Amino acid sequence: MGDFKDKQKIDVQQMINNKKSKQNKLQIIEKIVPVFLFLCAALSILTTVGILFTLLRESITFFGQNGFMNFITGTTWNPWTGKFGVLPLIAGTLLITVISIGVALPIGLASAIFLSEYASDKVRRTIKPTLEVLAGIPTVVYGYFAVTFVTPILQVIFPEMDIFNALSAGLVVGIMIVPMIASLAEDAMNSVPNGLREGALALGCTRFEVAWKVVVPAAFSGIVAATVLAISRAIGETMIVTIAAGATPNLTFNPLVSIETLTAFIVQGIKGDTTFGSNIYYSVYAVGMTLFVFTLGMNLLSQYIARKFREEY
After folding, report:
1. pLDDT tens digit sequence for 155-191
2. Which residues, listed in sequence order, are joined to residue 84 by a DSSP beta bridge?
3. How far apart are alpha carbons 133 and 130 in whole angstroms?
4. C-beta atoms surrounding 55 within 10 Å
5. HSE of 44 in the Cβ direction (CA atoms, 13 Å)?
6. Of 98, 109, 204, 214, which sits most exposed with the smallest number of CB within 10 A?
7. Burial level of 16, CB count in 10 A (0-12/13-18/19+)?
């Protein structure tokens, strides 16, 4: 009997010790987890600061050697002859962006309205993942698709069109960003309360009127934010324009000729025949800084519009 009580006492004491040990481990983990999460967040910030520092340092070196005003106002871009006017690259980038948004916005918005207001759950579960497959296709495949499929078709309509041109590249970039606009816009429309739809239907509106005059205005901030993000994606697209738009930095808005964008030059300028420390080497960073300013401006605009037109329900 005495041995049984002693054994029971030892077991209880062992349980108390195990409980204390487990609590001590949990307390240690509770102290480590916030530190780990802080380090992850700090690493992201430090990476951004490092990238920005590198861009600024090399860009300042370039501007010191070639002049800032000559860079942003020059109309000729031929770095191999010492001409560093970036306007032709900016014009090419804007041309591709305008064409791609002209394709992606109506298709993406129409797709979002259909998925949100007309499609059944079964159809939505089938079409939305299928649409998002477009976002998973490598951009290099899109580039060759533009050259070998889209351009020959367009040349039937425009015989004078160059093989490498802005139109086919812009069209394919637009197709690529359709899923981004459709998916984000559809999410914004789904967040609109059903009470608004039911109220409009009770007043005699048709489903199209509900979608166009109630849902779209109510989800306007999300739709605009999706569009601005898609514009940023089009501005930063590299492989499609490198393959399909050519490498001719023309200061033109004619979509039928070859142009060169900011990203396409970065790819071209960083090739192996570029000497480290040369003017062309530093010009890559100056163009990268220009691209960074463009995308930063678009992201800030997106955040401003989202806050300005946000609806609280």
Report:
1. 999 999 989 999 999 999 999 999 999 988 998 898 8
2. 77
3. 5
4. 18
5. 5
6. 204
7. exposed
